[in-house]
Design brief:
The structure holds 2 protein chains of 2 kinds. Chain A has 2 domains: 3-59, no CATH class; 73-155, Glutaredoxin (3-Layer(aba) Sandwich), CATH 3.40.30. Chain A is 49% helix and 12% strand. Chain A has helices at residues 3-15, 22-33, 38-48, 52-59, 81-85, 88-99, 141-155; strands at residues 73-78, 112-117, 129-131, 134-136. Chain A has a 4-stranded mixed β-sheet with strand order 2-1-3-4, with helices on one face. Chain A starts with a helix and ends with a helix. The model of chain A has no long low-confidence stretch (mean pLDDT 96). By secondary structure, chain B is an alpha/beta fold. Helix content of chain B is 44%, strand content 14%. Chain B contains 16 helices and 9 strands. Chain B has a 5-stranded mixed β-sheet with strand order 6-5-9-7-8. In chain B, 58% of the residues are buried. The model of chain B has no long low-confidence stretch (mean pLDDT 96). The interface between A and B is large, with 36 and 50 residues.
C-alpha cells in the first residue's frame, strides 16, 4: 500500500466512515501532503463508500483543500480591504521578488507556494499573512523577509 | 433614544472566581427559567442578523425530537470582523459554558464549534480549555459533549445552513429556508446556532441577571457588544461598547479627524457618509452590525473600496444560485466599465436594479446583502465611481 493509502486508512480509523467525517479526513490529508491528489481522493471515496466525484466536489469547494500540488510551506497573504489599505501590495511584491515566483505559483524546490486570500480576521493589524497555520500580523517588507528566511533555514 | 458612547467590560470581564461556576448555577435551574431570563434580557444575536436569542432557544426547546444540537458559529469571515478570534483566544471558558447552558435549556446532548480554518492556530489552547470543560461537566453530572470542527477557507460557511452542510461533509452550499434551523438544522435535527459572542453574552446575563443587562443599551438594542475597529483610525482594535450610540460619537472617539465614511457591518453592511454620522444610530433601530467598523478618510477612493468588496463577493459566492453567482460578477464588471467610460453614468441605475433583483431572488444572505454596500456607496459617492 502507498503512503497516501496508509494515511487515508489511518484518518478513517480515527474519524469513522460516516459522511460527516469527510471534512476532517480531507483536512488530515492536506495537513500531511499539502494537497489532495487524485489517488488520495479515490482512496477516500472507496473507504467512505462515496463516488470520487462527491469527494472531489466537496474538496474543490473549499479554498484550503487544494487539489493541485503545493509547496511544503504555503504563504497566504490577506488581500481584503483593510490589508489593502495598509500595504499588502508591497508585501506581495516583496515575497514575489524574494521567492522568484508570482502569486499562485510554487518555487522550483517545492518549498513555498504563494497565494492571496480573503480576510484573515486581523484587520486591526494588517497587513497580515499565514504561513501554514501560523499568523504574522503587522508586516513590513523587512519583517516579511526575516520571517521567510526563518522557514528557509528550518528546511535546510 | 440614542446613548452616549460608553466603554464596557463584560465580554472579557471576570467569569467567576471558580471554574465553570456560572454553568453550575444554571444546571440547577429549570430550562424554562433559563430561557425566560435570556428572553427578558432582550439579547439579540451578535453575529449580525440579530435574531432574538431567547426566541431561538424557545422554538428549539419546543420541538419534539429525539436529538437536538447546539452549534457555535466561529466561522468569523466578514471583512473587518475579528472579535470572535479574540474571545476564543482570551475567554474560551465563557464560550463553552454558554454552549452547555444552551444544551441544558433546549435539551441537547451534543454541541459543535465550527472554527474557521484561518484560526487553526487557536486549536491547542481551545483543546486545553475543552479538557477542563469536560472534567467539570463530568463532575457536575452534565451530559453535554462539545466537538470542534474546522472550516477550510469558505466565507459562505458562516451562513448557518451552509455551515451545517459543511459539518455534514458536503459542499458549503446554503439551504432553502424554511425549514429554519430551530426545526431542521444540523443532521436535519432541531438546532440552535449562535455566534461566539452571543454565547458569551448569555453567560454574562446568567451571571449578572437580565435586569442588570437591560440597563445597558436602548429598548431596541439591549446590552453591549464588541466592535472590531479598523481602517483609518489611530487606535484600531477591539472595543466593547454600549449599543445605541450615534456614529458621530463613534467617529469622534475612533476617527483620525478626517473620516469621510464608515462601513458599518463589514463588506455586506452599509457605507455611511460623513453628512449622515449625526443621524445614524449603531444598533437595531439604526444600522445593526456584527461589530465590523471600517473607517475611511478623505485619502481613500470609494471606487476602490467598492471594487474590493465586489471582488470579495465574486470570489466568495458559492455559485449555487444564478442571481448571486452572475450578479456579483456583473456588478464588478459594471463599475469597471463605467470607470473606463465604456458605459455612461446611467448604467449605475441598471446595476442598482440588479442588486434589487438579487435581494429578492438570491438564496441566502450573501447575494441578498450585496445591495447594502453597493447602493450605499453608489448613492453617496456617485462621482467617485464615475470619474
Amino acid at each position: 500500500m502507498s503512503n497516501t493509502e496508509n494515511l487515508v486508512k489511518e484518518l478513517v480509523a480515527k474519524y469513522g466512515k460516516s459522511r460527516s467525517s469527510l471534512m476532517p479526513i480531507l483536512q488530515g490529508v492536506v495537513e500531511k501532503e499539502r494537497y489532495l491528489s487524485e489517488e488520495a481522493m479515490i482512496s477516500i471515496a472507496s473507504e467512505l463508500n462515496l463516488s470520487a466525484a462527491e469527494v472531489y466536489g466537496t474538496a474543490s469547494f473549499y479554498t484550503f483543500l487544494d487539489t493541485v500540488p503545493r509547496g511544503k510551506n504555503i504563504i497566504r497573504v490577506c488581500k481584503t480591504i483593510t490589508c489593502h489599505m495598509k500595504g499588502k501590495d508591497e508585501i506581495i511584491k516583496t515575497l514575489e521578488d524574494m521567492l522568484k515566483i508570482k502569486v499562485g505559483e510554487t518555487t522550483h524546490d517545492k518549498e513555498f507556494t504563494l497565494l492571496t486570500v480573503n480576510c484573515l480576521g486581523w484587520c486591526h493589524k494588517g497587513p497580515v499573512m499565514l504561513v501554514n497555520n501560523d499568523v504574522y500580523p503587522e508586516l513590513t517588507p523587512e519583517k516579511t523577509i526575516e520571517i521567510i528566511q526563518k522557514y528557509i533555514k528550518t528546511s535546510k | 433614544m440614542e446613548k452616549k458612547l460608553r466603554k464596557v467590560d463584560l465580554i472579557f470581564g471576570e467569569y467567576s472566581s471558580e471554574k465553570y461556576k456560572v454553568l453550575e448555577k444554571c444546571l440547577k435551574m429549570h430550562p424554562d427559567d433559563i430561557i425566560n431570563e435570556i428572553l427578558d434580557s432582550g439579547l439579540r444575536g451578535r453575529g449580525g442578523a440579530g435574531f432574538p436569542t431567547g426566541l431561538k432557544w424557545k422554538y428549539t426547546k419546543n420541538q419534539d425530537s429525539d436529538e437536538k444540537f447546539v452549534v457555535c458559529n466561529a466561522d468569523e469571515g466578514e471583512p473587518g470582523t475579528f472579535k470572535d478570534r479574540e474571545i476564543l483566544d482570551k475567554v474560551p471558558r465563557k464560550v463553552f459554558s454558554g454552549m452547555a447552558i444552551c444544551g441544558k435549556a433546549i435539551g441537547a446532548k451534543k454541541g459543535y464549534m465550527y472554527l474557521r480554518g484561518e484560526y487553526t492556530f487557536l486549536l491547542p489552547s481551545l483543546y486545553k480549555e475543552l479538557d477542563i470543560y469536560k472534567e467539570h461537566a463530568k463532575k457536575l453530572g452534565l451530559d453535554f459533549d462539545i466537538e470542534i470542527r474546522m472550516g477550510s477557507g469558505a466565507y459562505i460557511c458562516g451562513e448557518e445552513s451552509a455551515l451545517f452542510e459543511s459539518i455534514e461533509g458536503k459542499r458549503g452550499e446554503p439551504r432553502n429556508k424554511p425549514p429554519y434551523p430551530t426545526v431542521a438544522g444540523l443532521f436535519s435535527k432541531p438546532t440552535v446556532i449562535n455566534n461566539v459572542e452571543t454565547f458569551v453574552s448569555v453567560v454574562m446575563i446568567m451571571k449578572h441577571g437580565a435586569e442588570a443587562y437591560k440597563k445597558l443599551g436602548t429598548t431596541d438594542s439591549r446590552g453591549s457588544k464588541l466592535f472590531s475597529v479598523s481602517g483609518d483610525t489611530p487606535i484600531p482594535g477591539i472595543y466593547e461598547l454600549e449599543l445605541g450610540m450615534t456614529l458621530a460619537d463613534f467617529v469622534n472617539e475612533f476617527g483620525d479627524g478626517d473620516t469621510k465614511a464608515v462601513q458599518v457591518g463589514g463588506a455586506s453592511g452599509h457605507c455611511v457618509p460623513r453628512k449622515k454620522f449625526n443621524e445614524t444610530i449603531i444598533g437595531f433601530e439604526g444600522i445593526p452590525t456584527g461589530g465590523s467598523m471600517m473607517l475611511f478618510n478623505s485619502s481613500r477612493s470609494m471606487y476602490n473600496v467598492l471594487h474590493d468588496y465586489l471582488e470579495f463577493f465574486t470570489e466568495e459566492s458559492c455559485g449555487q444560485c444564478t442571481p448571486c453567482r452572475v450578479g456579483c460578477q456583473q456588478l464588478l464588471k459594471g463599475i469597471e466599465a463605467v470607470k473606463r467610460g465604456e458605459k455612461n453614468a446611467n448604467y449605475l441605475e441598471d446595476l442598482k436594479k440588479l442588486t434589487e433583483t438579487m435581494k429578492i431572488s438570491a438564496k441566502c444572505g450573501l447575494g441578498q446583502s450585496v445591495a447594502n454596500p453597493f447602493n450605499s456607496i453608489i448613492n453617496n459617492f456617485r462621482e467617485e465611481i464615475i470619474y
